[in-house]
Known about the structure:
By secondary structure, the chain is α+β, with helices and mostly antiparallel strands. It is built from six helices and twelve strands. The chain has helices at residues 17-31, 42-50, 99-113, 128-137, 172-175, 217-231; strands at 4-6, 9-13, 54-60, 65-75, 81-90, 118-123, 141-146, 157-163, 191-192, 201-206, 235-242, 247-254. The strands form two sheets. The chain has an eight-stranded mixed beta sheet, sandwiched between helices. A hairpin with a 2-residue loop joins strand 1 (4-6) and strand 2. The model has no long low-confidence stretch (mean pLDDT 91).
Amino acid sequence: MQDASTGPYRSSTLRTHAEFHAAAELYACVFGYDSPDLQLNTNLLSALVRNGGSVVGVHTRTGALAGFAYGFSGRDASGREFHYSQAAVVHAEHQGAGVGRLLKRAQRDVALGWGHRRMRWTFDPLLTRNAHFNFSSLRAEGIDCIDDYYDRPGTDRVVVDWVLDRRTDPYDAARSIRPPAFGSSDWGRPTRHEDTDADAVWLPVPAQTSGSASSGAEIMELVRDGVRSLLAEDRTLVACRRVDATTAAYLAVRRLDEENA
């Protein structure tokens, strides 16, 4: 992958041990990981670069690492191949500055270079800001919801699927639909959208929290079960929009079969 620049930032594939070490430190810092079993092995990052994976970073003009992402080749039970993005992290000082988008574009270039046409990753369904980035900014879709994805409590995840070589977005019209004026009393209650011909269903949820124990088991279960209900009957998540300071809403529509996708 060639270096790419946007404003004060530059994205590139990381290739040296010093870069891998800086990436591992940033990863542990952003996620707050202090347990050895949750930290990154720099040898693994080196091997990924050489064998179908992605290890990309975004640096500032001074050379500081502002963001990092890594992934690898994957295949699901149906035999569909994709590039799996395990993690993307942005230093707190650079969040909201477009670094996340640069990271995903860099990963996309690497994945296409390895011959992959899709990318997948997961996110905490309680993090609605992440959901908005995935669906509205990147124009990917949510295709599954898995309990305890990392085999420990508080790790329920939505699986995202991103078609990397898509020329037109079949969900473009649905992504622009505005949610009704939901409030906290509507959280977790699927609501059909009546003002469009699309078979669209909203799920109001808390605007921003996390899947940690402090979020409350009741809220976690409410959002998880609600998202799972949206994905039933062959639906896919295509948007997550903020309603007000306390409430956001997921939107699901009927899944479309994209030929050769």
